[in-house]
Structure formats: C-alpha cells, structure tokens
Design goal:
CATH class: Alpha Beta
Distance between the termini: 17 Å
CATH topology: Rossmann fold
CATH superfamily: HAD superfamily/HAD-like
Structural class: alpha/beta
Order of helices and strands: HEHEHEHE
Protein name: HAD superfamily phosphatase
Organism: Halalkalibacter wakoensis JCM 9140
Number of helices: 4
Strand order of the largest sheet: 3-2-1-4
Shape: globular
Helix content: 25-40%
Radius of gyration: 13 Å
Number of domains: 1
Number of strands: 4
Pfam families: Hydrolase_3 (PF08282)
Oligomer: single chain
Strand content: 5-15%
Amino acid sequence: MKYFKPDFELNHFSDITSDWLQKQNIKTIFSDLDSTLASHDRQAGDDLKQWIAMLKQNNVKLIIASNNSQSRVDLFCEPNGIIGFGKCKKPAASEINKHVSEVGATKDTSLF
C-alpha cells in the first residue's frame, strides 16, 4: 500500500498564505476536516471563513477529504461553498486518487 509522504509541515491552516500558494504553485488543497480545519462536529470559525475566502480569491480549490460520514462533510462544506468527500479510507490513497481525478486536479499542483 502506498501512502502520501509530506513535503511540508504546517502548524495551522493559516500558515498557508497567498504568497506561499503562488510560490509552491498550489491550485488544489485536499484537507481533512475534524481536528484539522474545525473541531469535531463544529462549523467553520471566522478565521477559517476568511482563509477559505483567500483561497477562492487566489483560484485555489479547497477539497475536504474526510474519513467521517458524507453527511458530516456536507454540513461543513455546503455553507462554505466547497467540495467535500466523506468515507475516504485514509491513509489508503485509492479514494483520494479517485477524487483527484473527479475534481480535475493534478498531483503536482495539489497539497494533501
């Protein structure tokens, strides 16, 4: 089984800035949801909403890739106007690879 291996270590989503995205040529971000972008079963806080707006202004897609249920993912994604996939079976890469193709992303311009 092949796993994703990190190229970057970030402490908080806000470490990803407009300048950083441009420097790294990132067009798509695949992120976990609970305990990564929001506390379990919580909606986006103001800091996250501002960050999502910055991504949109920079034409960067934020894709949620969660092991949680699709209904939890939808409750978070729909109010924020982002795409999300539940039941991704991480750390296995097969579901993520499928979603990369579905959203028209490429691995060389994506952050996982």
